[in-house]
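Z., the sequence and structure:
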Amino acid sequence: MIKFLLTALAIFMLWKMVMGDWFKGKKSAPENRKQEPLIAKDEMVKDPICGAFVSKGEAKRVRQGDHLTYFCSDMCRDEYLKRIEAGQDGEGGKG
């Protein structure tokens, strides 16, 4: 009976080690990485391409001088940059 309990405990501990660390991808952040100030989650901005609202803290950004433009996705940001390169103003909707 004791052998069964010890075996079960060993299997459980091994399972916790494998499932807890390896498959969840826990990685420590580099200590020399500069921390950006946190922005309130409820501060929302409108994506100029598709019109979606997104939290400033989670938005993709493009800086032009002192002006920041916020986007809901990489796709909208890339579309905006293409329009800027083509000489358009970057504003507009996808429909």
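The helical segments are 2-22, 74-85. The longest strand covers residues 60-64.

Let me know what you think.
H.
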